[in-house]
Amino acid sequence: MAGEVHTASQWAPRRGLVAGVLLLAGATSGVSSPNAPFEYLDQETGVTVTVVGRPLVFARDYAPFSGGPAPAYGVAARDYVTLAAVAVDRSGKFDYLLIGYFWSVGKLQTENVRLAREPLVIQLRDRRVELVPRDSSARDAGISIPIHQPSVGPATQSVYAVDLTKMELIAESAHPVLYCEHQSSSLKYELFEDRLPALRELVKYLNTAP
After folding, report:
1. For the CA atoms of 45, 18, 198, 193, what is the dihedral angle to 10 degrees?
2. Residue 50: is it exposed, middle or buried by C-beta count within 10 angstroms (0-12/13-18/19+)?
């Protein structure tokens, strides 16, 4: 539910990928792990994309904004933010990004469109990482395939530029907390699942890759 890993077999029918384009980063060692990053050649844009094995997912119990709608369904309403770390290689020039998805369970999705335009802050105890949404899309960055897009309901995408140092700070933190600045309030999202080991694996791979 909280952001699926899309395998080559899932992508190929939808995007016409040739079998074998997707390469597991751990394949050379013969070790397969859900935390292992993977990379693929994007056949539409021609760039190589390295993707975290499992994205970070943050959640908060839903509380309507003043005058906002009540939960739409008979289940506990909750808002989520998925952050998937990627590296885009354009002939040796790297861009590091967090692909964000704002989505919800048990409520309408209209607020997520607004939240995806707002800055984010990841609080790391005494450090903080500020994330400003880019005007451009993941496709503009060279990523034509949805990366870890949540499989439950619609999701609004946002893209944030980072660097490898910021990725490492987040990966090595004990319990990052996400804040979304919305109008005069700050919405707090707690880490939903501990997927930090996958981010650490990605950072390690990017630091040692030739």
Report:
1. 100
2. buried
User: How close are the terminal C-alpha atoms of the chain, in Å?
Assistant: 34
Structure pTM? 0.79
Strand pairing report for 93-105 and 156-162: antiparallel
**Residue 90 · residue 96 · CB < 8 Å:** no
Look at the chain and count its residues: 210
Residue 127's Cα: distance from chain center in Å? 20
146, two tokens? 């949805």
What are the tens digits of pLDDT across the range 54-74? 999 999 986 554 445 554 444
d(CA 29, CA 3): 26
Using one digit for the tens of pLDDT, what is the confidence trace for 18-63?
A: 223 344 334 333 446 889 999 999 999 999 999 999 999 999 986 5
Extents of the domains making up the chain? 8-208
Contact between residue 104 and residue 62 where contact means Cβ atoms under 8 Å apart? yes
